[in-house]
Specification:
This protein is an all-alpha fold. It contains three helices and no strands. This is Thiol:disulfide interchange protein.
Length: about 60
């Protein structure tokens, strides 16, 4: 489970990445920014689940 603070950070960074890449390059690579957005919204991080820990997991 991802902490609330980490979820907010992931959504904000995902939005910034998606908008910036789309604005400057008009490339579909901007869709990579959807990954942290989805993780932030759902609260489920597959990397954290399979590795057993998450380096970005902040205190709740």
């Amino acid at each position: 489970m991802v902490s609330v603070k980490s979820r907010i950070i992931r959504v904000v960074l995902g939005l910034i990445f998606t908008v910036a890449v789309w604005y400057f390059y008009e490339s579909y690579w901007a869709l990579i920014g959807l990954i942290p957005i989805i993780v932030g919204v759902t609260g489920f991080c597959p990397a954290c689940k399979f590795l057993g820990r998450c380096s970005l997991n902040l205190k709740r």
